Amino acid sequence: MDHYITGATIRRLREGKGITQAQLADIIGVTAKAVSKWETAKGLPDITLIEPLAHALGVSVAELLSGNVVTNQNVSCNLLRSHFYVCPICGNILHATGRAAVTCCGITLPPLEAETADDRHALTLERVEDESFLTIAHPMTKEHFISFIAHVSMDRIQMVKFYPEGNAETRLSLRGGGYLYWYCNRHGLMKRKV
Ligand SMILES: [Fe+2]
Fold first, then answer.
1. What is the distance in A from the centroid of ligand 1 to the CA of 111?
2. 146 CA distance to ligand 1 centroid (A)?
3. Rounded CA gap, 34 and 26, in Å?
4. Ligand 1 center–CA 89 separation, angstroms
5. Distance 102 CA to ligand 1 centre (A)
6. Which of 8, 23, 129, 173 is 20 to 30 Å from 65 by CA-CA measure?
7. Strand runs (DSSP E) across 43-187, as ranges?
8. 91 C-alpha vs ligand 1 centroid, how far in Å?
9. Residues 48-106: tens digit of each pLDDT
């Protein structure tokens, strides 16, 4: 975990709720002095206190740890604002329709920034009936491979997982326009408009 709760976050949330250090301490069963220490970066709350602390401050554990309080304005419904996250340790693939505090295997994952593919990761698109046949001519060894391809349009996401020793090819309906994303475990996320 490279992100733990900060004293500044605790103070901001506590003041936002209009309670004193003593009142917060009472709710979660610690001393006012302990809260004061956390807020002035002279100590950190034990992991067992994170959940009661989040509850007392009226936020989720994820919000408390990330320091970002999210108001659900349902602005993330447009899939074109998608973010992909890939865990470098276990290969887990996560998708979010908006900003998120994502952790896997104990580390915080940044949203991947997609690039235009170079020649070695180029995607070929061939029309087959009412679908498209997509091929990425790329090594598919255990050390270096294309992990997935996804088609994201305004209201739909399709993802196909690829495995080493297989071929990075699939058939998809690309109706609705949007973007294709594909991920190389060594070279990162690529993106192309459909
Ligand atoms: Fe690659």
1. 19
2. 7
3. 11
4. 17
5. 24
6. 23
7. 83-86, 93-96, 102-104, 107-109, 123-128, 131-136, 146-152, 157-161, 169-172, 179-184
8. 15
9. 999 999 999 988 888 888 877 665 555 545 777 889 999 999 999 999 987 788 999 98
